[in-house]
From TrEMBL:
SUPFAM superfamilies: DNA breaking-rejoining enzymes
InterPro entries: DNA_brk_join_enz (IPR011010), Integrase-like_cat_sf (IPR013762), Integrase_catalytic (IPR002104), Tyrosine_recombinase_XerCD (IPR050090)
Residues passing through the membrane, by range: none
Protein name: Tyr recombinase domain-containing protein
Annotated Pfam families: Phage_integrase (PF00589)
Keywords: DNA recombination
Protein species of origin: Streptomyces rubradiris (Streptomyces achromogenes subsp. rubradiris)
Magnesium among keywords: no
CDD domains cross-referenced by the UniProt entry: INT_Rci_Hp1_C (cd00796)
């Protein structure tokens, strides 16, 4: 309606005084380091590399499966997010979009990528279907989940703090993106940096991870400790 007013289609929006219902923000689903490792251990080599990249860059599945070899800058240990794999094919993000971004690569992730792409053409997709050891077709999200991701997640397990073996949470591939952000925030990386790494258009999207910051409740706990006479329960 606002766009219709801007385009002079209508004079006044009939929705101008209507408050939209609040959207409940779900806490992000993320894996611990042990859980992520157990998933990697269940994957074939090519998909190990893809998911390693997902955990350490925060690229969405469409960005991972839409990545081209020439977008990887080996000399600077960077990759450039430009294309995304969609149901209707590979598309470029608009040049004005924050989704277009430069992402740093840890050394061990770059090494895994180099091993994966050393026989691929410069303009080839990095990750495709595999047919007799050769690169194949553009990946399909539903097929990849069904044939690769869910079998690995279902087979993966880890040991909890009590030494008990536990199944890995049944989270979708998008949780690799949440996992990357969660790990970084827990290690003290600012929400501003995480926003730009993940290409979030709105800072509100990134604030979902604020509770994971090491000093998230430091001010509150400090205030309680400074109380002159704290409440006590008599023994």
């Amino acid at each position: 309606m606002r766009a219709a007013v801007d385009d002079d289609v209508i004079a006044v929006s009939p929705c101008r005084s209507i408050d939209l219902p609040p959207i409940a923000v779900k806490p992000p689903q993320w894996f611990t380091l042990d859980q992520a490792q157990s998933i990697l251990d269940e994957l074939p080599t090519a998909w190990k590399t893809m998911c390693l990249l997902g955990f350490y860059t925060g690229l969405g599945w469409g960005e991972l499966s839409g990545l081209h070899c020439h977008r990887i800058d080996r000399r600077r240990s960077r990759l450039f997010v430009v294309e995304v794999n969609t149901k209707s094919g590979i598309k470029e993000y608009p040049k004005s979009s924050k989704s277009r971004r430069e992402v740093p690569l840890p050394p061990h992730v770059l090494e895994a990528l180099e091993r994966h792409i050393h026989r691929l053409d410069r303009d080839a997709l990095v990750f495709t279907t595999i047919t007799k050891g050769r690169a194949g077709r553009r990946l399909d999200d539903g097929n990849w989940r069904r044939q690769t991701w869910w079998p690995a997640v279902d087979a993966a397990c880890y040991f909890d703090s009590d030494g008990e073996q536990q199944p890995v949470p049944h989270y979708p591939p998008h949780s690799m993106r949440h996992t990357c952000a969660s790990w970084l925030v827990q290690k003290g990386v600012s929400l501003y940096e995480v926003q730009h790494l993940l290409g979030h258009e709105s800072f509100q999207t990134t604030q979902r991870y604020a509770h994971l910051q090491p000093d998230a409740h430091k001010a509150v706990l400090g205030a309680w400790q400074r109380l002159d006479s704290p409440l006590v329960i008599a023994a």
